[in-house]
């Protein structure tokens, strides 16, 4: 393997389809050889400097953060730094394998080989394989598990049973009747969990267990609703008016100013609202003017026809949609 001075890293993050349209990768970080306290920030397409590493095997660990502030699982990869000046290997010169931990043979070519397993007892066994290149470097061992059937047993033809359990609770395992199956995880706490599965064939033989780790995202907090309002005129907070908000779906918040008997001229209205979580909003202050036109001088039609008018007596086309002071059925209203 050629000595590497910089290494490009591609990061793949798998997220649930339900959240795919709502989240993006916002950042990442990495560390080498378990030194998490020396972790470095990582951006897409970044190069990682490994020039200071000693020749030999090292571990790179990466994790990314989404736009909701949630970190992914850590992903670790082993890589090899060659000694300075070493050239690339060009061919494989040897291959050897072991059965159940006992070295059996050494090959001098990489041609297709047939391994004799006739002496193995029925059941599960393990084979380990490694190869050597023309520079004398051995690869990591690759292990595979296989099953030797009892003599005379015919091959299984179908899967007859499927079962799974969550978080190593094998005593609470459940059977899956159909595939693909929908597994209810609504009762699980937020965080990492593990699902383990196995299947049984028509000969009554169970497969190896297959485990997968998955993440349950925290449930979003219920949205707060508006429950109360409070307002006062000018600086008279001592006589603030409060009330319940009956329907938050209303597009406008209407305050009836008629009972306040305000003097003509400039005034301010200060408003705050309370949500269902017990938090008051920031206060909002708006200026308005009480015009000389009084309700008693308003034409009779303004009081009886159910229409909305501005302070100059002009009839509006429906309910007003901008903040201001309006007259409706003989009363003044301030619309926020």
Give a quick precis of the structure:
This protein is mostly beta strands. It has one helix at 300-304, and strands at residues 6-8, 25-32, 40-42, 47-49, 56-66, 75-81, 92-99, 102-107, 123-133, 142-148, 159-166, 174-176, 191-201, 210-216, 226-233, 241-244, 254-256, 265-275, 284-290, 308-309, 324-328, 331-335. 1% of the residues lie in helices and 42% in strands.
Low-confidence parts:
1-21, 294-303
Strand-and-helix sequence, N→C?
A: EEEEEEEEEEEEEEEEEEEHEEE
Distance between the termini: 72 Å
Shape: elongated
Tell me, what is the CATH class of the largest domain?
Answer: Mainly Beta
Q: What kind of sheet is the major sheet? A: 4 strands, antiparallel
Quantity of strands, as a count: 22
Rounded to an integer, what's the Rg over CA atoms?
Answer: 37 Å
- Domain module count: 4
Description:
It is a single chain. The protein is mostly beta strands. The protein folds into four domains: 6-81, Immunoglobulin-like, CATH 2.60.40; 92-148, Immunoglobulin-like, CATH 2.60.40; 159-216, no CATH class; 226-335, Immunoglobulin-like. Helices cover 1% and strands 42% of the residues. It is built from one helix and 22 strands. It has one helix at 300-304, and strands at 6-8, 25-32, 40-42, 47-49, 56-66, 75-81, 92-99, 102-107, 123-133, 142-148, 159-166, 174-176, 191-201, 210-216, 226-233, 241-244, 254-256, 265-275, 284-290, 308-309, 324-328, 331-335. The protein has a four-stranded antiparallel sheet, with no helix packed on it. Strands 8-7-9-10 form a four-stranded antiparallel sheet, with no helix packed on it. The protein has a four-stranded antiparallel sheet with strand order 12-11-13-14, with no helix packed on it. Strand 15 (226-233) and strand 16 (241-244) form a beta hairpin. The longest helix is centred in the C-terminal third of the chain and has 5 residues, at 300-304. The two termini are 72 Å apart.
